[in-house]
Amino acid sequence: MPGDAAVVAVSLSGTHTFSKPNQDVIRLLAGLGVEGDAHMGVTVKHRSRVARDPSLPNLRQVHLVHEELHDELRSAGFAVRAGDMGENVTTRGLDLLGLPVGARLHLGETAVVEITGLRNPCLQLDGFQDGLLKAVLGRDEDGGLVRKAGIMGIVIEGGEVRPGDPIVIEFPAGPLHRLEPV
Q1: CA-CA distances (angstroms) from residue 162 to 29, 85, 89?
Q2: Measured in whole angstroms, how far is the alpha carbon of residue 80 from the centre of its chain?
Q3: What is the pLDDT at residue 1?
Q4: Where is the MOSC domain (predicted)?
């Protein structure tokens, strides 16, 4: 894994669209998220969470999806590419779903994203392509639900992120905790 992980694509949308157009570069802002993205902010920006309590902290400033999921979905007949599932950063060579809470991803020269949890897949996936919600859910060997639609994080250190940038993982000290939906 060391040295193999890289950014494949970066994406943002200034409005609450499901998919996000790919960019040549995105700028991460510490404590806020992706500059110009509709989900940027200190407090929650996802519409369902704003409706419940707009004062909650935004633990979903940056959405990351592994390109290997796109490969899996394409082999199952779905037409998906980077940014289509609303992610800001598409990665390759990194087991995103296996990271613990608090792991830090160093993206490019200066940006650092701390992982807060899993994206909880929603019905909007089926609005994008019928059957996609079921395709991003699976079961582990014990029958537990596996959410494969990416992970969420907060920006600790700002900076520019581009396709081709390396990703370095920094694991948290102490006991490691599995990702749960945020």
Answers
A1: 15, 18, 9
A2: 15
A3: 41
A4: 20-170
